[in-house]
Amino acid sequence: MNELDELYQQIIIDHSRTPKNFGNLESKTNTACGNNPLCGDSISIDMIIKQENLSDLKFNGHGCAVCISSASLMTQLVKEKSCQEVKELFELFHNMLTKDEDSDLTKLQKTAVLKGVKEFPIRIKCATLPWHTLMAAINNNIESVTTE
Ligand code: ZN
Fold first, then answer.
1. 10 Å Cβ neighbour count for 64?
2. CA 33, 37, 40, 44: dihedral to nearest 10 degrees?
3. Distance, CA 101 to ligand 1 centroid (Å)?
4. C-alpha span between 54 and 65 (Å, rounded)
5. 3 C-alpha to ligand 1 centroid (Å)
6. How much distance in Å is there from the Cα of 54 to the middle of ligand 1?
7. Cβ contacts of residue 23 below 8 Å, gap of 6+?
8. 57-107 pLDDT per residue, tens
9. 89 C-alpha to center of ligand 1: Å?
10. Are 111 and 121 within 8 A, CB to CB?
11. Which residue in 82, 26, 57 sits closest to 133, CA to CA?
12. What is the pTM of this model?
C-alpha cells in the first residue's frame, strides 16, 4: 500500500469511528431513510432547507465503515450548499464510482477518498447509499430508499 492509500484509509477509519453531523435535527424540513440490505446498512438523514439552500443536516443509523464514513464526509461537503450544487455533487460522486471516465474530482474535496471503493463492487452501494438518501430527502421522497 502506498502512502496516499494509507492516508485515504485513515480518513475513512476516522470518519467511521467518530462520524461528523451524527444525530437527529429537532426542526427538520425534510427527511428520508435508506437501506442497503446486501450489507445491512441503514441510515436516515434529517435536513433544513431554507430558500433552496441546505442550511443544516444530520444523519443517523448504522452501517459498515464505508457507509458511515461516506455519510459523514458527505454531510460535511454538502452543508450550506444550494440544492442545485448538491445535485451536481451527487452526479460527480456517483459517476466517480460507476463510470470509467476520469473526471475532475476537485469539487468532491475529501469525499473523493472513497474512489478506491470502486475496486470492490460489493461496497459501491455502501458508499452511494448516503447520497441516494440525501437526494430522496431533498426531493422530500417519503418512501424509504433501497439499493435493491
Ligand atoms: Zn456497507
1. 16
2. 0
3. 25
4. 25
5. 25
6. 26
7. 58, 60
8. 999 999 999 999 999 999 999 999 999 999 999 999 999 999 988 889 999
9. 21
10. no
11. 57
12. 0.92
